[in-house]
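Subject: Interface between my chains keeps coming out wrong

I've been trying for a while to get a sensible model of this assembly. When I model each chain on its own everything looks fine, but I need the whole thing in one frame so I can look at the contacts. Pasting all components below, labels as-is. Any help appreciated, I'm running out of ideas.
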Amino acid sequence: MTLDTLFDAAAKPHSKSVDSLTIRRPDDWHIHLRDGAMLRAVLPFTTAQFARGIIMPNLVPPVTTVAMAEAYRSRILAARPEGNDFQPMMTCYLTDHTSADEIEKGYAEGVWLAAKLYPAGATTNSAHGVKDLNAIRAVLERMERIGMAVLIHGEATDPAVDIFDREQVFMEQVLLPFLKDYRGLKVVIEHVTTQETVEIVRAHAPRVAGTITPHHLMINRTSLFQGGLRPHLYCLPVAKREHHRLALRRAVISGDTCFYIGTDTAPHTARNKESSCCSAGVFAGATALQTYAQVFDEENALDKLEAFASLSGARFHGLTPNSGTIELLRRPGALPAAVMVEDDEVVVFRGNEELPWSLGEVRP
Ligand code: NCD
Ligand code: ZN
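Reply #2:
Try treating it as a single job with all components included. I did that and got this:
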């Protein structure tokens, strides 16, 4: 079956009363797994939902070399639940000192699939990120030549820029000139949060794509202050106004292959979240597919879920979609409100809610 036939077959009409749905096993194109005890605690939630995933490199210290990425990949494989076949796809953390040869070596050897560009200071563990795009010109040109994608955290880093405008300012001041500069480079705008970014991604497809998180489809910036300050909903880019959330919903159900799944599951301990200076990140991994299914259902577009979750990302990265399936059930499922990590815990996004959709059988 060709990829196009798959898309046609995936877009079959559905009836509103459908109460179960079987889709190809999805991939998660944006995951923070951390390391050590945290890795062991959160990984089973991702491996229960996804067959493959792009692993973010913002560890301390960041994953900047082929050797570090190989070692991290081995630690992830060793932490998988018994018998699980999850495949981590690694990324290289770009700094002002990244070498083009190292980038090409990791790509040619199949160690990493893409490189992550954090503007220095934009988000959690991004202090070693790129301060000067000119410093990595040779790296970007090499990536353009070998067809390796750059994954961009698209927020302005000037502290004077209003936090709710940082994505838009980055797109205007950095991304649009960047796309003109590197016309052949494959670019993913990570965790799109605004209507304007949706339009930029669409206008530059197919070499540009955008990932969209479950939480940005569910919450807006007012949710952060609902009844009091909600640290567990704080992430970067921060949730925006309601009309942006609605634009993201239209984007994911559009069937446009330039938008695909990326949960940005970003666990932090409750101690770090419920603090006078709360870390940015939502632990979305445990309830991601259930949330996406609910969103597509609410938008009467369950027929578009498979393309978003299981086909479009693979197509962008030139990979074959997974052959197994996962079943989604319109049946409330119980989830833990939090997951223990050593003497602390990580609060699960929507873990305290009864979710209308739950996961059924996975067939590898
Ligand atoms: C992420 C993290 O915690 O590593 N936090 C977040 O708010 N999304 C980093 C990131 O993806 O920006
Ligand atoms: Zn992230």
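Reply #3:
Confirming on my end. The pocket of N-carbamoyl-L-aspartate (ligand 1) is lined by residues 32, 58, 123-125, 153, 235-236, 264, 266, 280-281 (CB under 6 Å).
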